[in-house]
Design a protein that fits this description.
The complex is a heterodimer. By secondary structure, chain A is an all-alpha fold. Chain A has a domain at 59-194: Up-down Bundle (Four Helix Bundle (Hemerythrin (Met), subunit A)). Chain A has helices at residues 18-43, 54-57, 62-83, 87-118, 127-158, 167-194. In chain A, helix 1 runs parallel beside helix 6 (167-194) and helix 3 (62-83) packs antiparallel against helix 6 (167-194). Chain B contains 16 helices and no strands. In chain B, helix 5 runs antiparallel to helix 6, helix 7 packs parallel to helix 9 (295-308) and helix 13 (396-426) runs antiparallel to helix 14. Chain B has a single domain, classed as Cytochrome c oxidase-like, subunit I domain (Cytochrome C Oxidase, Chain A, Up-down Bundle). Classes of the chains: A mainly alpha, B mainly alpha. At the A-B interface, helix 1 and helix 5 of A face helix 6, helix 7, helix 8 and helix 16 of B.
Chain lengths: 196, 558
């Protein structure tokens, strides 16, 4: 569409990357989902008619928290190594991230086993149980999803796939992982500090 | 551009037409235009089903103590009618219109994520089918199954295991949850497309208002739908794992469900009206031969409505007994919505004012939209007054109010869109004569149906009752209302006839039948799979005007 007396159209034409916009939108919609579970948790604090109550049964998940939060650092190291094509370092830090995530999930499993079998708190026991298992469980589900993608990246890399061609996707995955970590900070604050 | 003969294309053209191949090409498509048409077609089919339900409802209510259907069936009818119209008609129409038009309007070749787009459509469709499968599959415990009967907002504790036996409520939860995933991915796609795929020169300040409204709509979808999903997951936990979220006997709160539902539900009604806003903002200028009045104000108003819509939800809950401060807050916030909405109405009127108006069918629907939407807004302001709402909540006044927004405004806007863009999508014109029959019958039928319902509400008729006793002064109004519904049905038959007739022997449309100004009219009708042979370049908000009037282009004044 060139008209004769034309105004020059913008020479510089840059738009945000569609993947970036997509992943940010996805994270926003997830934040909306989590906030409702967080609101439900806050709303039901102290509303349980029968025990066990949070102060009786909950203990700080110290190891799990340290592992999950530091995995946000190790994935950054992995990303950095990948950008500089240091594949051995990438694989090492990526593996460390996976191990830290698995430790978190294991610790959550131990906590739940303890709560269910020793302290007799299930999702049906009282509103504390309902909100606790659904909020922590929703977060753990997100960790599992993130873990699945981390493992996929790890396996294809070990089998020789040139992962450095997919830096964009690796970055998106690490954003998602940071988001899951940030949610844990909120969950930890709400469940283990405010709720106790 | 030189034509290149692709050997593959050629062989495909020479091949014989086969039904299975044609079907496969639709099932496997990732083309935004095909997916858009599939969304629209599915929505229209669900619309006809839910419309038939509405007819049965009106047939039951035409005279007092009528026996067309029993109370149980009636509950299922209004539940399925409401749920279908909101989730399986409104939402796919949004997705369909965005999908078909946004890439064309911003000069892109496709949506940002074509495969995600196809996923969104199919998961929406299967969600809808799952909901309807309840009629066959939900004969759960104690014969208490069949379709959901808990109302479209499914208030707890009615939905708890103890009060809703069988599996019908689970079909409601899962059908909506699954189709909601489709709405969310389609909204993410719209956002990414709009922000990242615009052609050269298509700055946000030049983007068609249609695209602006639809992208704000998409933002609302991604933020408003998850609360419903979260509430539904909690309800599923209650029903299947014995959780106590909404179980009042264990300290749970039934009111919390109402909050969660309406945090979703109120933005949702604005989400539903936005495609009508979007359409009217494109159609009115073209048929008034004037650029839209106050473009920036229109964009600002839409963004403002999007923001405010998240702070008004509890005006649906005045009658549950909230604290006075909550009542005041939510009433005030609800009044605030009237300000940007008023800006929009004034700007549409100012666009028409002094214009060279052509009353073609799309314009007729837009004018009726403006009038009916104004009344819908006014009754909305009335209902936002807390004491007024205490009197009329859950009465037919509310039914009349929201049908003014959803039928009188949303549906009229969608018909305007269909009459306006049908020529682009199919290459055929819809008949103006049948279109005018369709329009006038729908206007008359609509007003006969819903105007008397305001009076019925004031006379005290509650909504959702399957019948009523004679002698309360309700009979004439119900009679008129049901007759109006029948006239609306005739109007819809006219529409269906018009579409089928146009597809078979419609006049050829040409590229630009309405002498319009936005990019989609520069390509052929229907557009080729690649949309534009060369990437368009845009210098103003009316690129096609610039092209038609090189001596007086818009960009001189912007």
């Amino acid at each position: 569409m060139a008209s004769s007396a034309t105004q020059p159209v913008e020479t510089e034409w840059r738009l945000p990357d569609r993947g970036t916009v997509g992943i940010i939108s996805l994270i926003l919609t997830e934040i909306s989902l989590f906030s409702i579970f967080v609101i439900a948790y806050l709303f039901y604090i102290g509303k349980s008619l029968t025990g066990p109550f949070p102060k009786d049964v909950l203990e700080f998940p110290v190891l799990a928290t340290i592992c999950l939060l530091s995995s946000s650092g190790t994935i950054v190291f992995a990303e950095h190594a990948l950008k500089h094509r240091k594949m051995a370092m990438f694989k090492m830090w990526w593996a460390v991230t996976i191990v830290l995530g698995l430790v978190f999930l294991y610790e959550t499993g131990v906590e739940w086993h303890d709560l269910i079998y020793d302290k007799h708190l299930t999702i049906a026991t009282n509103v504390f149980g309902s909100t606790f298992y659904s909020l922590v469980g929703l977060h753990a589900t997100h960790v599992i999803v993130g873990m699945t993608f981390l493992l996929i990246v790890f396996i294809v890399t070990m089998r020789g796939f040139p992962i450095h061609t997919q830096i964009r996707r690796v970055t998106f995955l690490s954003w998602y992982w940071h988001f899951v970590d940030a949610v844990w900070v909120v969950v930890f604050t709400v469940v283990y500090i405010v709720g106790r | 551009m030189a034509t290149v003969d692709y050997p593959l294309e050629k062989s495909r053209r020479q091949r014989e037409f086969s039904l299975s191949e044609a079907l496969y090409s639709w099932v496997a498509t990732v083309d935004h235009k095909r997916l858009g048409l599939m969304y629209m077609t599915s929505a229209i089919i669900f619309f006809l089903i839910a419309g038939v339900m509405a007819m049965v409802i009106r047939a039951q209510l035409i005279v007092p103590e009528n026996h067309v259907v029993g109370p149980q069936t009636f509950n299922r009818l209004f539940t399925m009618h409401g749920t279908t119209m909101v989730f399986l008609v409104g939402m796919p129409i949004i997705a369909g219109m965005s999908n078909y038009l946004i890439p064309l309007m911003i000069g892109a070749r496709d949506m940002a994520f074509p495969r995600l787009n196809a996923f969104g459509y199919w998961i929406f469709l299967f969600g809808g089918i799952l909901l309807y499968f309840s009629y066959l599959g939900a004969n759960g415990l104690f014969g208490a199954g069949s379709a959901p009967d808990v109302g479209w907002f499914a208030y707890a504790p009615l939905t708890e295991r103890a009060f809703s036996r069988g599996t019908s409520t689970d079909y409601w939860i899962l059908g909506i949850l699954v189709s909601g995933i489709g709405s969310i991915v389609s909204a993410i796609n719209v956002i990414a497309t709009t922000l990242s795929m615009r052609c050269k020169g298509m700055k946000l300040s030049r983007m068609p208002l249609f695209v602006w409204v639809m992208v704000v709509d998409a933002w609302m979808v991604i933020l408003a739908l998850p609360p419903l999903t979260a509430g539904q997951v909690m309800l599923l936990f209650d029903r299947y794992l014995g959780a106590n979220f909404f179980n009042t006997q264990a300290g749970g709160s039934a009111v919390l469900w109402q909050h969660f539902f309406w945090i979703f539900g109120h933005p949702e009604v604005y989400i539903l009206i936005f495609p009508a806003f979007a359409t009217v903002s494109e159609v009115v200028p073209v048929f008034s031969r004037k650029p839209i009045f106050g473009r920036q104000a229109m964009v600002g108003a839409v963004v403002a409505i999007g923001f405010i819509s998240f702070g008004v939800w509890a005006h649906h809950m005045f009658a549950v007994g909230m604290a006075p401060i909550s009542n005041i807050f939510f009433a005030t916030a609800s009044f605030l919505v009237a300000v940007p909405t008023g800006v929009k109405i004034f700007n549409w009127l100012a666009t028409i004012w002094g214009g060279k108006i052509r009353f073609a069918t799309p314009m007729l629907f837009c004018v009726a939209f403006i009038f009916q939407f104004l009344i819908a807004g006014l009754t909305g302001v009335m209902l936002a007054v807390t004491p007024f709402d205490w009197q009329l909540t859950d009465s037919y006044f509310v039914v009349a109010h929201f049908h003014y927004t959803l039928t009188g405004s949303f549906l009229f806007g969608v018909f305007a869109a269909i009459y306006y863009w049908f020529p682009k999508a199919t290459g055929k014109m819809l008949s103006e004569t049948i279109g005018k029959w369709h329009f006038w019958l729908l206007v008359i039928g609509f007003h006969l149906t819903f105007d008397p319902q305001h009076i019925l509400g004031i006379l005290g008729m509650p909504r959702r009752v399957y019948t009523y006793a004679p002698g309360r002064g309700w009979e004439p109004w119900n009679m008129i209302s049901s007759i109006g519904a029948a006239i609306q049905a005739i109007a819809i038959i006219c529409f269906a006839w018009n579409v089928i007739r146009a597809l078979i022997k419609g006049e050829r449309a040409g590229d630009d039948p309405w002498d319009a100004w936005t990019l989609e009219w520069t390509t052929t009708s229907p557009p080729p799979e690649y949309n534009y042979e060369t990437d368009p370049e845009v210098r103003s908000s009316r690129p096609l005007w610039d092209l038609k009037h090189p001596e007086d282009p818009d960009w001189k004044y912007e």
